[in-house]
Design brief:
Blueprint: E1 2-6, H1 11-14, H2 16-24, E2 32-38, H3 45-58, E3 67-73, H4 82-96, E4 103-108, E5 115-121, H5 136-151, H6 165-176, H7 181-188, H8 190-195, H9 199-208, E6 212-216, E7 219-224, E8 227-230, H10 231-234, H11 240-247, H12 274-294, H13 296-316, H14 320-338, H15 343-352, H16 359-366, E9 377-383, E10 392-393, E11 399-401, E12 405-408, E13 411-414, H17 420-433, E14 434-440, H18 443-453, E15 467-469, E16 472-474
Antiparallel strand pairs: 1-3, 2-4, 3-5, 4-5, 6-7, 7-8, 9-13, 9-14, 10-11, 11-12, 12-13, 14-16, 15-16
């Protein structure tokens, strides 16, 4: 089990109504599995969010964000019952000091890991004071360890190996599916940059790799075309302080620029998918062309709305901070109106559409380098009827069908401690699509399957043959 806080450093993210809307968005039948509201009179999420917003408005002194967004994620295959999840949620809130605060809890099941979102009002409903738990990451780690022992959950490492910008850059690269400039520098020329004896050698290494080092603010940035990253995010030894201690005061490079032998280009993390990447770029260029030419009225309307909003902000709003926040929200709305699909979103949608010519290749890419489903019990067999269109394709390439049936690499994944209804649904789905079926799991799971076989709602005992094997059980 892993618990972490999602930073909400600006007013837009801190809006509890917006967060609640995202949490309750039912993009598929498997997404929202349970909703719990604590400390509010309203029984629905929207009403509870408005109540929380009203309480937050009563505190005018607090300048920081007023919403605490907590995510509790369980190990892949673990599906605790609702009473256990409720007890876990209460323990976290109590340990963080939010036991008496309003909160909205939504359980999501549309990824490999069952996870609980908790939107907590940091303003106490009676005292109207804001509560900020200091060193909350230590509290979260300690609570995770306690709960894993109490409820027999899989043990995870709760000590972060990387902190700060390095960890953020790595996470973004993994989530986006594209090679970042930070990662590219680390893999291609980090050792050479560290070994440079003076600024001349350092700049030569930079130019050879198509990047340049520039001063920005109180630090350094690496620049490649229009993309720039903080030097310290690549490695702490490349921070301005550390570099100047080693090489002396910064010296700009005035020598003739040599032709680079390598240049950073944004591309997929995994090799061999050039056709997929070019198709994505072509579709994005085509959609931009349609938006700018064939669908010009929609584009012009969005731009005109953006200009009108900015005019009203300039004329009717006072205060530099207020204007900055409103300008940011205005620009973000424009981006949403004319936005393009990101690479990972495009891959998931392409893998979901069976009629798309690159559907299989997109699914293969999502599953590249991933280990989803390898530790779970599963059902396998000879496919006789192709799978229908899934409701969701996750970032790891797991396809989720109606009824929360999950498939990965031809395996129907079985959750840990499945209920009788889960077993029946899995057997019905497997019997529909597979010929001979093999169940891979422990004896307890096989016993559950035998119980399900005797149920009149599933395959009858006369229609199935059960025999134990080292590799599984066929029926």
């Amino acid at each position: 089990m892993i618990a972490r806080r999602i930073p909400m450093r600006n007013a837009s993210k801190s809006r509890v109504v917006r967060l609640a809307k995202y949490l309750e968005d039912k993009k598929s039948s498997s997404r929202v599995q349970d909703v719990t509201i604590t400390g509010c009179y309203s029984p629905d999420v929207e009403g509870a969010a408005l109540e929380m917003m009203a309480v937050q408005a009563e505190n005018r002194q607090a300048k920081s964000d007023k919403t605490y967004h907590l995510i509790i994620s369980f190990r892949e295959g673990e599906r605790p019952n609702r009473d256990t999840i409720a007890a876990i949620e209460n323990r976290f809130c109590e340990n963080l000091g939010y036991g008496e605060h309003q909160r909205i809890s939504v359980l999501h099941g549309d990824t490999e890991n069952l996870h609980l979102h908790v939107a907590i009002n940091k303003i106490h409903p009676e005292t109207l004071r804001i509560h900020e738990p200091y060193y909350d990451y230590k509290t979260l780690a300690r609570t995770c360890s306690q709960l894993e022992k109490e409820y027999g959950l899989a043990v995870d490492n709760h000590t972060s190996r990387n902190r700060g910008r390095q960890s953020v850059a790595t996470s973004m690269e993994r989530a986006g599916g594209l090679e970042s400039l930070t990662g590219w520098i680390q893999r291609n020329c980090l050792s050479e940059l560290k070994n440079a004896k003076n600024w001349k050698e350092f700049h030569q290494v930079c130019h050879k790799n198509g990047i340049s080092l520039r001063e920005r603010g109180n630090g350094f940035v690496f620049v490649s075309d229009k993309i720039h990253v903080k030097a310290s995010s690549v490695d702490r030894e490349l921070s301005k302080k550390n570099l100047e201690m080693k090489l002396g005061f910064f010296k700009k490079n005035y020598e003739k620029i040599i032709m680079p032998s390598k240049v950073y280009r944004k591309k997929p993390l995994f090799l061999g998918y050039e056709k997929l990447w070019h198709s994505y770029q072509d579709e994005q260029a085509k959609s931009s062309k349609i938006l700018l030419h064939e669908d010009r009225p929609t584009f012009d309307s969005a731009v005109n709305d953006f200009k009108l909003r900015n005019l009203l902000i300039r004329q009717m709003t006072s205060g530099r901070i207020n204007k900055m926040i409103l300008y940011h929200l205005s620009k973000k709305k424009l981006h949403q109106q004319v936005r393009k699909d990101q690479w990972m979103d495009w891959l998931r949608e392409t893998a979901k559409e069976k009629t798309h010519p690159l559907s299989g290749e997109a699914l293969t890419y999502l599953r590249s380098g991933k280990t989803s489903g390898q530790e779970n019990s599963y059902i396998s067999g000879e496919l006789k009827i192709p799978f229908e269109t899934p409701e969701v394709v996750t970032r790891k390439g797991t396809r989720i069908f109606t009824g929360s049936i999950r498939e990965h690499d031809g395996r129907i994944l079985i959750p840990k401690d499945p209920t009788l209804q889960d077993i029946r649904s899995l057997k019905d789905f497997s019997a529909k699509h597979f010929g001979r079926i093999t169940v891979h799991g422990d004896m307890k799971l096989k016993e559950l399957l035998e119980v399900a076989e005797r149920s009149p709602q599933t395959i009858s005992k006369n229609q199935s043959k059960a025999r134990d094997r080292d590799t599984g059980m066929e029926f």
